[in-house]
Predict the 3D structure of the following.
Amino acid sequence: MIKKLLPPEKWKFPVLMITSVFAGLIAFTFYVSKAHSYLSDRPETCTNCHIMAPQYATWTHSSHREVAHCNDCHVPHNNVLNKYYFKAKDGLRHATMFTLRMEPQVIFIHEAGKEVVQNNCIRCHSQLVTDPKLTSSVQAHVAHTQDRICWECHREVPHGRVNSLSSVPNAQVPLPESPVPAWIKEYIKNN
């Protein structure tokens, strides 16, 4: 279309302008979505989407809050590449569902996530799983650790039974910061 309307020596400007607009939109989307925050391990990042408020609120009241953050349990730790690949894959799925308004009222962990969480339970609690005192005091504990996932018995750890927005309507979670830059807020306030 551009080639038909403009002579070849004038193609560069519209192509450069269109490319600049798309680059600006992509940069704006990354800024507004706080994409850079997902590279961190801060639990507050999970509340960028309001749908994770129950999980954040229940975690803050659990014993795990002192020793483990979201990524300690929900992201693989076998190597750095796998960690960030999993975060990207899972994050894109979450972002897509949230953007398209497809998020469920009740959140359940997917199969890939179940495997990661189970491996991380064992990674952190391996001494408890193999402790002879524990295995002798908890009837059939060794037998049950072979064919079950940890949270079949330890269901309340760390999120309790709360897993939907309606079950914690007044959950105290950090509010995401406004994506509007301070200079725009100041301009609006003064005009």
Observations:
- DSSP finds nine helices and no strands in the chain.
